């Protein structure tokens, strides 16, 4: 069972306001990307990682991630694309070319740097058990409204049927490739959305609060507090 994780990390991270790609922003001295890749490898079920880095930062990303997989070439870095989905597609093509035995592909945002390895393993196990697409999710705590372009509420979906979606998302490799090929140029915010368009069922496993996406300075402060609490 060849498991490869793709890590789209090519965003500029402007909402964080750090003046550097978000993936390279340090939390307690360790870049988010390094923490995210370490979590994938610590799960014990990911053999290779392909990172899509900002084109201008491929060398930097190679340098910061080199200590994670000394000598055995487990971590590759490729230039990302204009949109997240372009970065995923470029990393996927690289993975299928370089690691031909790949049967399961995870897609994991560098911004979810504190995802517990147990969540990674649960996703891989569910794909290995025969589900072609698996996503970690959490229940929704807030009531969610759908609004029109003017901000007027048009619907209140039943909260009990809603979930927030995290990563890593896990896929049968051929299904993920088909999903990307079927939607060229579509700027999807997550890969499961592309798989849904194929009519392939997407199943859920429990996510974890620590797998929160670090987008704003507030999120970064939460991550720092989390680390202070665990001594990590
Ligand atoms: O912008 P957002 O936070 O939704 O991005 C989610 C993930 O996708 C981030 O880890 C970001 O680095 C990555 N991304 C990418 N290529 C882009 C845009 C975003 O790899 N062109």
TrEMBL record:
Gene3D superfamilies, per the entry? Spore Coat Polysaccharide Biosynthesis Protein SpsA, Chain A
Tell me the route in metabolism or biology where this protein functions: Isoprenoid biosynthesis; isopentenyl diphosphate biosynthesis via DXP pathway; isopentenyl diphosphate from 1-deoxy-D-xylulose 5-phosphate: step 2/6
Could you tell me the keywords of this UniProt record?
A: Isoprene biosynthesis, Nucleotidyltransferase, Transferase
Pfam family, any one? IspD
Reaction(s) catalysed by this chain, per the record, are: 2-C-methyl-D-erythritol 4-phosphate + CTP + H(+) = 4-CDP-2-C-methyl-D-erythritol + diphosphate
Q: What class of enzyme is it?
A: transferase
Which PROSITE patterns does the entry link to? ISPD (PS01295)
Keyword Nucleotidyltransferase assigned: yes
Q: What is its EC number?
A: 2.7.7.60
The feature of type site (Transition state stabilizer) is located at: 15, 22
- Family membership noted in the UniProt record: Belongs to the IspD/TarI cytidylyltransferase family. IspD subfamily.
Q: How is this protein named in the record? A: 2-C-methyl-D-erythritol 4-phosphate cytidylyltransferase
- In its UniProt entry, the species of origin is given as Saccharothrix hoggarensis
User: What is this protein's gene name?
Assistant: ispD
